Amino acid sequence: MIDKKTLTAELKRHFGFDTFKGYQEDIIMNLLEEKDGFVLMPTGGGKSLCYQLPSLIMEGTAVVISPLIALMKNQVDAMRNYSEVEGIAHFLNSSLNRQAIDQVKNDILEGKTRLLYVAPESLTKEENIEFLKKVKVSFYAIDEAHCISEWGHDFRPEYRKLRDIIDGIGKRPIIALTATATPKVQHDIMKNLKITDATVFKLSFNRPNLYYEVRPKLADVDKDIIRYVKSMPGKSGIIYCLSRKKVEELAETLRVNDIKALAYHAGMDSQTRSENQDKFLNEEVDVIVATIAFGMGIDKPDVRFVIHYDIPKSLEGYYQETGRAGRDGGEGKCITFYAKKDLNKLQKFMQGKPVQEQEIGKQLLQETATYAESSVCRRKSLLHYFGEEYAEDNCGCCDNCLHPRKKIEAREELCAAIETTLALKEKFKADYVIEVMLGKQTTIVKSFKHNLLEEFGCMQERDERFLGAVINQAIIAGYINRDIENYGLLKITPMGHKFLESKEPFMIVEDRDFSHTDEQDVPDGASSVLDPELFAILKGLRKDTANKIGKPPYIIFQDPAIAAMSTSYPVTLEELQNIPGVGASKAKRFGQPFVEAIKNYVEENEITRPEDLRVKTVPNKSKRKIALIQGIDRKIELDSLAQSQGLTFDELLKEIEAIVYSGTKINIDYYINEVIDEEHQDEIYEYFETSDTDAMAQAREELGPEFTDEELRLMRIKFYSENAN
Question: pTM to 2 decimals?
């Protein structure tokens, strides 16, 4: 057994460091004493060293169970750089051929290999288990241990078999490590691995150098991302997307806009994936666009921004992915684009899974949505989720703290929430408690006879969003607890009971409203660079133009197009054509007075126009546009057309909407006449003729529930095409 002085000397000899970070030294000493350990350490905290150094000191081969091939390759390469022995570290996974596997096994049996990375799927194979029984194992390290828990953000069933496999190979000390684990997940990991007596090392989750921001995900999100990346020239960044298709599309869009970017996802062949990862690590490219398959354990300390194109499925995933920024303690910007409709997509992904898994998934998703919509300090919200309290009122490094909202007294509403929760015997989730407070006569409320409670309808003058903010902020304040183990049922804490008896005030900030991101409308503050004065001038010009031809204003240009003009200041018809929603024919028909107005405004106000806002489109999108127009000309059923282009029906409608909004005339009467009866057609068409907006929310409200969104959108396309193009 070595002492701490000798351990520090070993650290210097093998890795060149003079001192340990945080609890590294204690964690390693615990393992050298052959004790089990549980390590909860934020991304960038130095988890890898906690098993790499002891593997070089202890006799035998350390078995590191790791979920991702990318992680293994990266860490094996790093270990080989520290040692003169080529076979000092190896990995065993599905990417290896038989010859490579034989080489790995020979090196281990000859005593060259001190560190073996194994995928959990590979560890379950009988031949690998039998081989490892012949090996002197120094210890087992289970990296990304949150994969064990069904409540973790990346649950893998193979991980739950690990303890039985380890017992079969031969018992040795276990060290479980993760960067993201709520108290519930931590308990689940230790129980499953049977290391409930393990020494626990838990570091603060606070990453003070990271800036957190959530932005509304509007129609021109690609342009927002290009603008942001170009504002960080030469800096490394990761952009996460949910789908492989979007990864490929966005990477290509970035490249045609002169940004050095590559794609990374599990569907690519392993050689290309490895090459792209290496190019990013070696700074041959600035940006990697990836699914969550990228990044776990990637040792790149100078990632300066992490962008989420889609909201992640859980706060654990969000924390881990954003944690890849600023690992060197330097600048780290974390920007997330959020729209409520993305939640529906994520929920659809859960369909077909076991009911329990779906329920857990929905709850994790709700926690993420609550975080995104909240106006509370992002740091405070995140740390609270991981069981850590943040005492500061303003972190000074998130969008909510830099642009704080006015606080509102909500004592009455909190008392009502506590009393209603107690009246419901603490057996329901927040959304149901809110339904009762609002006095909603839903089937389930009536079946439980909760409409007869004294508390029923006690807050009917309030709206759902406000009451949601009250409950969420009461949870952070410690008055209410969301019982994770019982799918998020609300429980009143002792503090909450005391609050009812006290006369304490309760100040909250209202949640942010992201519902508008589903529509084409441009909300207040949707773009921090939008010129509000020019926006008003152009809206006035649009109205005058519309009055002259007797049509609604949105027929000329839609609000997002006017907003884009008020951001990038196009002063020629050629520049105007590059505005989303403005094609060549639209620019030619209506554009001249608009570019003249913009040119005059720019000159009068001495505005320096941005030079990087002309976003080039990817040629494939043009090919798709042509294919869709040709398909409609041949009167192909829209369902079949969507399938042939690999689109959902919703995605097809978005493509067709973009085509007609840009000024191309198309005729989908052949399809409309099949799916919408004539009376409904007339009623919807008449609505769009008389309405001053084409927003779906307004159309739904005016026309009522008898019309589907699909019908409204199809008729909007017909009306727009016939009147604007």
Answer: 0.69
